[in-house]
Amino acid sequence: MATMSASSMNLNMIDSNFEVDKLTYEIFSILENNFLFGYGHTENRTNLVNFPLKDAKPVKHAAGKVRILCIDGAGATDGILAAKSLAHLEACLRRKSGEANARVADFFDAAAGSGIGGVLAALLFTRGKDGRPLCTAEEALRFLTDNRRRISRRSGILRRVLRPAEKLFRKTFGECTLKDTVKPVLIPCYDLVTRAPFVFSRADALEVDGFDFKMRDVCAATSADPSSAGPTEMLSVDGRTRIVAVDGGVAMNNPTAAAITHVLNNKHEFPFCNGVSDLLVLSLGNGESDFNAVKSPSGFVRIAGEGASDMVDQAVSMAFGECRMSNYVRIQSNGIMANKGTQAKSCKTASDLLSISEEMLAQKNVESLLFKGKKVAENTNMDKLELFGGELIKEQERRKTSILPTVVLKNNNASPSPSRTSSATTLSTLSSTS
């Protein structure tokens, strides 16, 4: 009994007198993530020897903020508004950083895209032959404008037989798989086999071979319109997982909530991200369709998807609370300019859509308020992109002198983790595997 009392006293003395050295804890965290778990991305290795230990003081958000890009499905502009937004953002990042060859992917830690937004994310984050992202934002915009009719919804027996989009994706992405992305990506579809959403994820692909898919199949799946070309049947690279996919917009037109949930729960790659205050999120819409102009079943599906996107925006905005003004930006047409959605859907050429998208970017930005609907902000959508670009660069510069790794990306050679906390895929998809 005396021994127990003495032990209790000693523990109390330790608790009251011993202050854990925060810097030591941070250093051990780095060692743990880089060596114990086998994550060794060169961008995250830090020179601990030269770090000035004397007078080191804890700093709020010392590990920085994880930067997430989210892109909606087609909307009224067939993805052109989001692509145009990213072209402007990339130009801003190059101008402000002084890096003439900077890419969007250099300034984000994760990306999510649904439908045509998923195709856009794949273009910007798939690794090209030179090791850099496959496309600049301007090249991705040109890809969408040049191939809009091959990708967009058009019915007809020839489309079902020829499947021009799938041939286009095969030519563009070749043999690249989800593992061949420069940063984590999340691209949803709806699986008709399991009757559930399926999220293609780089994290899952690195964990389990049965979740690695060719990027050309991922793009075909997330953009497959069931009312025109029909569903896309596909197999994982190892042949174990079978998916019969339709448009990701059917279940997840706005992937922002899924992306945030993935990052907050993926402690292997984002070890110090504990809440929304540790995030910088850019969510891109693609214009809203005119409900009165919808006359087909597929049109009503699109309207439903856009409505769900607005609900996600409201929910995410409320989740960010007080930090939503600085940490969360949503770019979307605000509906003030009359009939812009109708004009966009009646456009015959890509140049018309580009013009409409430019006008949407010049609109006043709309912000969701906590339990108060929406309000028109003072800044335009373009202004918001410029301001957000500045925040991305600040975070990039902060990391150059930080001891803590904000992101610890798994590489292709890392062994699977004991518990798959990085998984973004629903458990129901396991029934698709053999």
From TrEMBL:
This is Patatin. It comes from the Eukaryota. One of its GO terms (molecular function) is hydrolase activity. Gene3D superfamilies: Cytosolic phospholipase A2 catalytic domain. Pfam families: Patatin. Its EC number is 3.1.1.-. A motif (DGA/G) lies at residues 247-249. The nitrogen atoms of the two glycine residues in the GGXR motif define the oxyanion hole, and stabilize the oxyanion that forms during the nucleophilic attack by the catalytic serine during substrate cleavage. Residues 414-434 have a biased composition (Low complexity). Residues 411-434 are annotated as: Disordered. It is an enzyme of class 3 (hydrolase). Lipolytic acyl hydrolase (LAH). Residues 70-260 form the PNPLA domain. The keyword Lipid metabolism applies. PROSITE patterns: PNPLA. The keyword Iron-sulfur does not apply. Belongs to the patatin family. Keywords: Hydrolase, Lipid degradation, Lipid metabolism. GO terms for biological process: lipid catabolic process. InterPro entries: Acyl_Trfase/lysoPLipase (IPR016035), PNPLA_dom (IPR002641).
